[in-house]
Protein: Putative dehydrogenase
Amino acid sequence: MAAELDGNIELVAGAFSQDAGKSKAAAQTYGIDEARAYANYEEMIAAETKRADGIDFVAIVTPNHLHLPIARAAMEAGLHVMSDKPATANFQEALDLKNIVERTNRLYALTFTYTGYPLVREAREICRRGELGAIRKVMVEYLQGWLTQPLEKMGQKQAEWRSDPAKSGIGGCIGDIGVHAFNLLEYVTGQPVKKLSATLRTMVAGRALDDDCSAMLVFENGAPGILAASQIAVGERNGLRLRVYGEKGSLEWYQEDPNRLQLKWLDRPDQTLHAGSAFLSEAARHATRLPLGHPEGFVEAFANIYRDFSHAIFERQERPDASLSGSVCGIEEGVRSMAFMERAIGSSKADGAWTALEY
Amino acid sequence: MAAELDGNIELVAGAFSQDAGKSKAAAQTYGIDEARAYANYEEMIAAETKRADGIDFVAIVTPNHLHLPIARAAMEAGLHVMSDKPATANFQEALDLKNIVERTNRLYALTFTYTGYPLVREAREICRRGELGAIRKVMVEYLQGWLTQPLEKMGQKQAEWRSDPAKSGIGGCIGDIGVHAFNLLEYVTGQPVKKLSATLRTMVAGRALDDDCSAMLVFENGAPGILAASQIAVGERNGLRLRVYGEKGSLEWYQEDPNRLQLKWLDRPDQTLHAGSAFLSEAARHATRLPLGHPEGFVEAFANIYRDFSHAIFERQERPDASLSGSVCGIEEGVRSMAFMERAIGSSKADGAWTALEY
Amino acid sequence: MAAELDGNIELVAGAFSQDAGKSKAAAQTYGIDEARAYANYEEMIAAETKRADGIDFVAIVTPNHLHLPIARAAMEAGLHVMSDKPATANFQEALDLKNIVERTNRLYALTFTYTGYPLVREAREICRRGELGAIRKVMVEYLQGWLTQPLEKMGQKQAEWRSDPAKSGIGGCIGDIGVHAFNLLEYVTGQPVKKLSATLRTMVAGRALDDDCSAMLVFENGAPGILAASQIAVGERNGLRLRVYGEKGSLEWYQEDPNRLQLKWLDRPDQTLHAGSAFLSEAARHATRLPLGHPEGFVEAFANIYRDFSHAIFERQERPDASLSGSVCGIEEGVRSMAFMERAIGSSKADGAWTALEY
Amino acid sequence: MAAELDGNIELVAGAFSQDAGKSKAAAQTYGIDEARAYANYEEMIAAETKRADGIDFVAIVTPNHLHLPIARAAMEAGLHVMSDKPATANFQEALDLKNIVERTNRLYALTFTYTGYPLVREAREICRRGELGAIRKVMVEYLQGWLTQPLEKMGQKQAEWRSDPAKSGIGGCIGDIGVHAFNLLEYVTGQPVKKLSATLRTMVAGRALDDDCSAMLVFENGAPGILAASQIAVGERNGLRLRVYGEKGSLEWYQEDPNRLQLKWLDRPDQTLHAGSAFLSEAARHATRLPLGHPEGFVEAFANIYRDFSHAIFERQERPDASLSGSVCGIEEGVRSMAFMERAIGSSKADGAWTALEY
Structure:
């Protein structure tokens, strides 16, 4: 839905299921030629790269353990890749993937979806222009309640693979949403995290992975930060909230009210920005389709990432060195987020020992 | 974007401009066969109805004065119609259109977009189930600020035709947004307006049509209501807000925060409903694509109307008497909203005299 | 509580009940000398004006029908008066009272409590300084739900006298809260209402007075307005909300979130002001006791009116012509609000006929 | 203001300044007999305890280093004590004070003001009644921006003593507001913190004490928590926010919107409670003075603590073993909050080492 929203991209082939019959059935519901519905990614890549009208890129929307093998196969076959986050199942894989991306010179983007919202991009511009002054404190939280109960034992598919280390990798909540929170704070502030002290917990008895995380952070410039992620915060929906405090001003953005950005200042009135305002930055305006006051949401944010990605693919047709817009997260953010996850898990195992993010 | 979101509908032809060259250029940006880009609707209808793979329906997205002629031509040629509101340029035309719809037995839907939001549909179910008790008071407001300045004299296209009686019809603000407010309150409450007393004003000097409206209403059951619509409410964006008070409870919905519905009760805590909750009505769940907390917006609401419409078209292929889902507004709502507009203008000219809506 | 909050005023005498015993009992709970607890206001005024340490002013907190007789008796005896609104039981009484105030040269203030909030005073300053430009539209609403049921027949004292014409006067909802809404809009905008068209309803069967009011307004400068007041808006608490739209900007204030004032502008970001900010007007700062972020509420707003009133009494000790601060509503606002009430009732009886406010 | 609000308490004596002249001048503005304005607390206690109409209790509102000596002197002279928090300048002093309280059997209360809000008390009742199920996660934050600049070097008195270790003790932000946050979470949840890992920072160059704190917590029942306190969060006012997540439901309360309490549940609609509702717990209703929708604020919350304290003093006149209402924080909470502060500072110095709160 997001990929096709702007008319630049068309879904024409896929490996929709490991069961060939189911894959073909899915193709039909998508209005795709059955011949291009494959039973696995190897088959798909092999067949599509032989067609004159073959696919330009692969979108990886599988459980995490398949992210690396599919991305590798696709890029080695000359295809670009748009992958779900996290980039890979663990940090070492992310480094491997980085090598592959560099070696194959393919476009590689990660759907850190929240970076597609216009006001997240406005927030980033505000930080870049130095309007807040030096960053002094960052608070990010990502609170969900959907794993309050042991859904993975109650037949819920999304919960099953996400809490299964074999499919999800070493991180539960930290890998599913913690990395979004981490990515968002670095994306907006432009300020890298230097080290962290984390506590991961499994609050629902019998669950194999963490479902609640807290971390204290220190940024490269010495500023402190706090990251909280939880999937047992009963009643919370998809509560990703970022607050950034600088020397001169601060900003706050909340994913469930995504078309508003709140700014506060030293000694002048608070301000609220709205998506669609003519006076926003080009980065924000470029990410909005509708007039002021006409809400855009998650699909549109997602579509912004696909749109930027498609533009890079079009440019590649002109210039082989065309690269992704800086607004789109790629392998660099993928590696950092995997480092974050692995170091957070390590820190938590070491009783919250401060752990550097460098690698 | 909205039409194609769910994959049921594909844009394959159009009269995109009165200039044949521009129409073809537009086709290209939409990825449409140039041969199916026409210079006017007559040509399009003639050509498309001859094709085996011709269009199933026409979407009318022109200024108001063309709504009737296009709808008539399309339906008489056997095509279904999805039209922008208002249905026609005046009330008499709406009655004519009703006859045409009935005579041709074509599907006719109006994009009263706000009725596509899941929580508007939830609100309607709540009223239908009688949870609020008998309705006692309704307040609806639709506040915008974009015509605070005389944009129509500053080269803004949308403002130009909307404030030009030749293209917009007899209503300015009342026709552009007042009818949305009116439609929403009848849609949700299921309670028809019986009579009204209105005041329309033109607050920006030199503007040809009203830009601010107030109306007192009385419903069939005797309950009073207030409708306010303004396009000179500086700083407002697209502020459509509905509040319904019954004997036992009340509800409030606001278009700029569309995924939340507030309920208040006699002697028990206020409640807030969120789009995507498992315990909402089927009507609301059917209108949601994403999990709880993932905002859907205007495009998705619009798409819900197209999706319902496409289902009726599919059903027509099985049963010639298949009709539109009751969730979608059609010619009946079109006639009522034109009656509302014409009676409000009449009442205002008669110094706010109470005017019945019946016809 | 409000009168004594700032230490300028002390409650030392009263007619707390028509029953002398009850009056004395009440005095005890207030820590007042029993000798100064009277069985009626005549007795109180007679006795207190004979004492060297007698009272300086009378606070009238009775049902409406007693407002005029007590005020008259007090002022004719040389005492100042702080009265609950409405000033009197009807408009003619208000004119009489105005004569008495002028003749006796006593200080007379009305507890239009909401005018005591710091951000209401800020809003007024913003209008005065012309920051919004010429006013184009005003919307005021005062919504309560406490009379959703026929409480007056269920033994609730406050509901009993308020819905009894003999004690409350000719207005129900319009007199109890409609006049607050009216007063607030004139107080903040400084723009007098010229004429109105009103609809008053009694929605609860058997109730003697109106419990729901709507009015369309026209201001002296031609701008339209809407006033809504209801006591059967189930679930609403004490929802007084004012929105003022000018040519350049707009403001919104809501009584249940009184320490915030929202400003919106043509082509620049929305702003939010908070009570206690150093950069607010003197009028607002003068009405705040605590640092930023420490909520003040209804009692403090009330106390601001008492404090201003006490300052005028102190000044009278120096200068016999000292008058009330312009921030405090007096007999002029009292007469206007009674005119509003009477004209609204008249208009409603005449089926909403436009009725001038002049007198 | 708060002490006198309900009429149970009267300010009759004080040591208002170390300068006898200034103390007498202050007395005059308070309307107090000059003879009872003393130059220091020793003098005051000596004189007042000799009077038949001497004071019943002392309210300590000095910088922190004087809390213990004054409390000791007062209690040893037979007076009760209401003290500003923190109880003392360090943990050892708090233990000493606890002995004094126990030995003298005087009433000792701490103005943890936020525990006086009606909806904080409602939140506590909800936790007590087990409505949320076992607590799984607690997040508390107290964010202010007033020390964003080095005010202590710009002549601001409040900033001066608070950032001076000689007057404030060993804690800056942690002692000024961190302890409020800590106290609030234990007060509401009834769940004691077992251990913590803290990071304290001084973000404004040259400041002598911490101005920003983060802590990860573990409760006795194993649940994790996060505490954030900052005085350099530019643009924040007095942002104390508590969120408690249990197995079945969660609650959120925010000090700047104190009359609202939000509840969220597993599989049913969110709820909002409002101060003044008839269906709240007795604890909340007892702490409210005004009808629904009439905001009460900081002064009223403060007054609730004084009122409860005064009731205990009255009861002592009947029964020498009468004790403080459980709603009021006393020496136990004082000791715990000092332990929290000292352990947090210790943990921070030990690079965030987990530190037990037990003593």
Summary: Chain D has two domains: 20-113+305-329, 117-290+335-356.
